[in-house]
Design a protein that fits this description.
Layout (H helix, E strand, L loop, with lengths): L11 E5 L24 H15 L17 E2 L10 E4 L5 E6 L3 E7 L5 E6 L1 H6 L1 H7 L7 E5 L9 E2 L1 H10 L7 E4 L2 E4 L1 H11 L4 E4 L13 H4 L5 E7 L2
Parallel strand pairs: 2-3, 7-11
Antiparallel strand pairs: 1-12, 3-6, 4-12, 5-6, 5-7, 8-10, 9-10
Length: 237
């Protein structure tokens, strides 16, 4: 489990989990945090309790039902939790997304008064989940982005239609794809950096981990039936 040591505002906390340190049995071993993957619900709840205790969280994380879309909810105002991102400007919430190859994107403002967690699979990333998350912040906010563990650019094989979907929106996205036979290798972090740069986000930090190639992490592409990691961000005093 990482509490990454990036230069963030003093009252912003982030954490990104690995797969170890929980109670789930194979193939969900062991710190699976997803209730939707077929694991024993009691094990998942035990893992979530372990997570809260280890991180000394101020409250239960705001778990979402993620659907590979672009909806980003305001945790103080939106009761529905069917979304691929959440925003908070209060210490009363912990924003969280779950991943197992998709890219978690954590955002905060430089003043340490607003945070957001985004689930950026390729569909959501292409369709604008990062832009939707940024739009939740107050106008004029200087933002900081933290990119978590995701499938890397040597493992993320996609068809030409995925490359075309990104390049139709921005020809510059072509630099994030490398041909591999009749397929392409895509760079999720590179695509996210491009979108963040276009949105004016200059401070971007990233965890250089490929979930597919590193078995300390869950990977849906590698294993199929597997668990989910969590990436969390919240405000403190």
């Amino acid at each position: 489990m990482y509490g990454c040591h990036w230069p963030l505002p003093a009252n912003v906390r982030i954490a990104m989990t690995q797969r170890h340190g929980g109670v789930s049995q194979p193939p969900f071993d062991s710190l699976n945090l997803g209730l939707h993957v077929g694991d024993d619900p009691a094990s998942v709840q035990a893992n979530r309790a372990l997570l809260a205790k280890r991180l000394a969280l101020p409250c239960e994380p705001a778990w979402l039902k993620q659907v590979h879309g672009t909806e980003v909810v305001d945790l103080a105002r939106d009761p529905l939790r069917i979304a691929d991102g959440s925003y908070s400007d209060s210490k009363a919430h912990v924003a969280v997304v779950m991943t197992a190859d998709c890219l978690p994107v954590l955002l905060c403002d430089s003043a340490g008064t607003q945070v957001a967690a985004l689930h950026a699979g390729w569909r959501g990333l292409c369709d604008g989940v990062i832009e939707a998350g940024i739009a939740r912040f107050r106008p004029g906010s200087e933002l900081i982005a933290c990119l978590g563990p995701a499938i890397g650019k040597t493992a993320f094989e996609v068809g030409g239609e995925v490359r075309a979907a990104f390049c139709d929106k921005d020809p510059g996205a072509d630099d994030c794809f490398v041909a591999k036979g009749d397929k392409f290798l895509g760079d999720l972090q590179g695509l996210a950096r491009l979108r963040l740069q276009q949105a004016g986000v200059r401070r971007v930090y990233a965890l250089d981990v490929c979930t597919y190639n590193n078995k300390d992490y869950f990977s849906y592409r590698r294993d199929g039936r597997t668990g989910r990691m969590a990436s969390l961000i919240w405000l403190t005093d």
